[in-house]
Each structure stands twice: as structure tokens, then as C-alpha cells.
């Protein structure tokens, strides 16, 4: 099937035996019985003997970051994050026969459940109120009494895919005759218009305060006397004037909204969320990751990265960089040095001279075609080679031909 090789219980076991899985950080041990959800995480490293003992005693195992341990999951999510334009994360869940690991709840993400092994019985319920439609935050654990009738009840078997949007309550339990291994892929967390406006409105207000004296004028001296909830039923011309003034300032705020700059700030956050790109063998050979520098005969050799005006280059991928104009200067954010563990690293960026902006835009617009270093719109050849070398060293640029033949 199409899902074969994505992740298996053998991969789960291999991750544990690799010795890097930590309870609470990468692995949760859970149970749900008689309406009570419990977490049973010890501290420290998740040793196979301890983990499999928990499983044998009826506990579910949730691997929180399978992409850190599985190249196939990493590759899968890296394709999806590009497709969705939003962080794609995953958890894998291994549940013993006849048990349930989690209480009914809803999440703040779009969820795609792919059954990998065994079977699982699912019940899905629509949002209970308008306020729970596409919620910003996940729910607490819910009780059976708080649920109505499911809108979907089904048994997923290996290869089946179930999608439910944010706010749909769900619970899954194992049938008595089979274990279950599934992966939940998530996307669109905090990726709504409201989340975008949270970035945009404060920036618009800051610009309005700087550029428009009306926003800096003082409030009426007596406004506390006629405004406020206690005065909300009072008929007063001063109240009407105050409300109209506020409305007019809010409407005028649209004129100061730096929409593109706010999008760039969202993109910068997204690049921090991103997994690093998965390289093909040919991409490795044509990038710094395949560069043949090594120690030989008592010293390093093949160290020098020699880029000339005739070297043909292109971005490794279109979506791995973002130019942002910030107070401190022009920043180029990039994903090539990100970790496979979510936010393990600080955001990666280069501070660029403003005159390099055109060259970055040129590389973005030229993708996927190669261009000669000489064609970069920098003033001098030295600057062209310097920029290309810097971007190559960060894994952002690849060359049409390997720079050094091994």
C-alpha cells in the first residue's frame, strides 16, 4: 500500500533502541479507563524494557516527534509543510488490543489520521457550540456525558485515512483482537485570519502613531465621567462623539496596515517551524553537504570552496528562505540548518547588506533555473562571489555541477 514503509512498530522499537528517546520529551505513556485519563511518564531515557512493559500492561505509547527518528516521516512532513504553507507535525500512537489511551477531546489543528498497522475504532463528534467551530486552542479532556451522538463511527484498518477539522471531538479505542499503530499528521495550528491580524494590527497602530498626529492627541479630560460600563446606558452627546472618534481611528488604521511586512513576519515564524529540507543524492553532491573536505596525509584537504563568475547556481528549494526588512536591517531567514525536533534551534538568519536584496530576489525569481554568479545584480564581481559563497556555505545554494570532483 501507499503507506507501507512510512512508519512501523519495528521503527518504534528501533527509535527506543537508539537510546535518544526521553520520557515526556519524545514519548508519553498514557491510559484511559473508567473516564479517567492518566499519564505514566517516569523521568529520563525511555529504555525498551521499561516502555514495552508499560505497553504489555495496557498503556498506550505516543511518540511525539517521529520525524526526528524516521527519515521517511521527515520526508513526508517536509512535502506537506510546503504544500500547506504551514507547519506540518506528527505523532504516532501505539495502542494495545482492547484499550483506549486518551479521553475524548478536540484539537487546535487540522488532523489527518493514517492507520499504519492493526485496527482502531473511532468516534467523531461535531463541535458542540459556534464558539468551538475552528477553535484557537485545544479542549480539556471531556467526559462521555458531555458528548452527543457521533457524526462518524468507523473502524480504521491499515491504509485507511480519516480527516477531521479543528474543533471536531474525537476518541479512538482498540478492538479486543488487534493492536493499533497510527500516525496523526497535523497542520494549520494558529494559522487563521485572526492570528494574522494579531501581527498586523499592532504594527499598523505603531505606524499610525509615528505618522499621524491624530493618534497622538490627548483623550478628552472628562471622558472617564461619561464612558465605561457603568455609563453604557446613559444618553449623552459626548458618549456618541467619543464612540464615533474611536470608530474613525480604527477605520483609518487600515491605511497604515503594513500587510506585506506582517506576512513576512508570519513567514519568518513558519520558517522557524519548518523541518530542514530532505536532500536527494544529486542535491547533496551539488551542495556544501557533499563537499569533499576531509583529513588526509596529516592535514585537511579539498577545503577551499572555489566559486567563480562562471559557476552556475540556484536556490536549493524556493521555500527555504525569506527576506525580511526589520529595524535591525535586512534579514534572510532560512531553514537548511533547522533541527528535526520542533524549535530545538533558534531561528536561523543572515544579516545582509541592503544592496544584496536584489540578488536574493533574482535567485528567487530564477528558480528552478540555474544562473551564473556573474549575472547576480551586485555592483562588483567580488560582491557576487562573496554572496554566492556565503549562501553556498549555509546550504542555501547548490551548483549545477559539483564544485570539486572527488
From TrEMBL:
Enumerate the cofactors the protein uses.
Fe(2+)
Places the protein is found: Nucleus
Q: Which PROSITE patterns match?
A: JMJC
Q: Which residues form the JmjC domain?
A: 59-204
Name any GO cellular component annotation.
nucleolus
Q: The organism sits in which domain of life?
A: Eukaryota
User: What does the entry comment about cofactor binding?
Assistant: Binds 1 Fe(2+) ion per subunit.
Q: What keywords are assigned to this protein?
A: Chromatin regulator, Dioxygenase, Iron, Metal-binding, Nucleus, Oxidoreductase, Repressor, Transcription, Transcription regulation
EC category name: oxidoreductase
Enzyme nomenclature, EC number: 1.14.11.-
Provide any one GO MF term from the record. Answer: iron ion binding
Question: One Pfam annotation, family name?
Answer: JmjC_2
| Catalysed conversion reaction | L-histidyl-[protein] + 2-oxoglutarate + O2 = (3S)-3-hydroxy-L-histidyl-[protein] + succinate + CO2; N(6),N(6)-dimethyl-L-lysyl(36)-[histone H3] + 2 2-oxoglutarate + 2 O2 = L-lysyl(36)-[histone H3] + 2 formaldehyde + 2 succinate + 2 CO2; N(6)-methyl-L-lysyl-[protein] + 2-oxoglutarate + O2 = L-lysyl-[protein] + formaldehyde + succinate + CO2
InterPro entries xref list:
JmjC_dom, NO66-like, WHD_RIOX1
Function field: Oxygenase that can act as both a histone lysine demethylase and a ribosomal histidine hydroxylase.
What is the similarity comment for this entry? Belongs to the ROX family. NO66 subfamily.
Q: What is this protein called?
A: Bifunctional lysine-specific demethylase and histidyl-hydroxylase
Species name for this entry? Donacobius atricapilla
Amino acid at each position: 500500500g501507499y503507506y507501507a514503509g512510512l512508519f512501523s512498530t519495528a521503527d518504534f522499537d528501533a527509535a527506543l533502541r537508539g537510546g535518544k528517546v526521553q520520557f515526556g520529551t519524545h514519548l508519553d505513556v498514557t491510559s484511559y479507563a473508567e473516564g479517567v485519563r492518566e499519564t505514566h511518564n517516569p523521568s529520563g531515557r525511555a529504555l525498551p524494557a521499561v516502555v514495552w512493559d508499560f505497553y504489555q500492561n495496557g498503556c498506550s505509547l505516543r511518540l511525539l516527534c517521529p520525524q526526528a527518528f524516521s527519515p521517511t516521516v521527515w520526508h513526508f512532513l517536509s512535502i506537506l509543510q510546503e504544500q500547506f504553507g504551514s507547519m506540518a507535525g506528527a505523532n504516532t500512537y501505539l495502542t494495545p488490543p482492547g484499550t483506549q489511551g486518551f479521553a475524548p477531546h478536540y484539537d487546535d489543528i487540522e488532523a489527518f489520521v493514517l492507520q499504519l498497522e492493526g485496527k482502531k475504532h473511532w468516534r467523531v463528534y461535531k463541535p458542540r457550540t459556534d464558539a468551538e467551530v475552528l477553535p484557537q486552542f485545544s479542549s480539556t479532556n471531556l467526559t462521555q456525558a458531555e458528548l452527543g451522538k457521533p457524526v462518524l463511527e468507523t473502524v480504521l484498518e491499515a491504509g485507511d485515512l480519516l480527516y477531521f477539522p479543528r474543533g471536531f471531538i474525537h476518541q479512538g479505542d482498540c478492538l479486543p483482537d488487534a493492536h493499533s499503530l497510527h500516525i496523526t499528521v497535523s497542520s494549520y495550528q494558529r494559522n487563521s485570519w485572526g492570528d494574522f491580524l494579531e501581527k498586523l494590527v499592532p504594527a499598523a497602530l505603531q505606524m499610525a502613531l509615528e505618522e499621524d498626529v491624530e493618534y497622538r492627541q490627548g483623550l478628552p479630560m472628562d471622558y472617564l465621567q461619561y464612558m465605561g460600563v457603568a455609563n453604557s446606558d446613559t444618553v449623552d452627546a459626548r458618549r456618541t462623539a467619543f464612540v464615533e472618534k474611536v470608530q474613525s481611528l480604527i477605520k483609518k488604521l487600515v491605511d497604515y496596515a503594513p500587510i506585506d511586512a506582517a506576512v513576512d513576519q508570519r513567514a519568518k515564524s513558519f520558517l522557524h517551524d519548518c523541518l530542514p529540507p530532505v536532500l536527494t543524492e544529486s542535491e547533496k553532491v551539488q551542495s556544501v553537504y557533499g563537499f569533499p573536505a576531509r583529513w588526509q596525509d596529516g592535514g585537511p584537504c579539498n577545503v577551499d570552496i572555489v566559486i567563480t563568475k562562471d559557476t552556475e547556481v540556484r536556490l536549493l528549494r524556493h521555500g527555504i528562505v525569506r527576506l525580511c526588512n526589520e529595524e535591525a536591517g535586512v534579514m534572510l531567514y532560512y531553514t537548511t540548518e533547522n533541527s528535526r525536533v520542533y524549535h530545538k534551534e533558534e531561528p536561523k538568519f543572515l544579516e545582509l547588506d541592503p544592496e544584496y536584496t536584489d540578488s536574493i530576489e533574482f535567485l528567487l525569481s530564477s528558480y528552478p533555473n540555474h544562473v551564473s554568479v556573474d549575472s547576480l545584480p551586485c555592483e562588483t564581481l567580488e560582491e557576487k562571489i562573496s554572496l554566492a559563497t556565503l549562501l553556498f556555505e549555509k546550504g542555501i545554494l547548490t551548483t549545477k555541477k559539483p564544485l570539486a570532483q572527488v
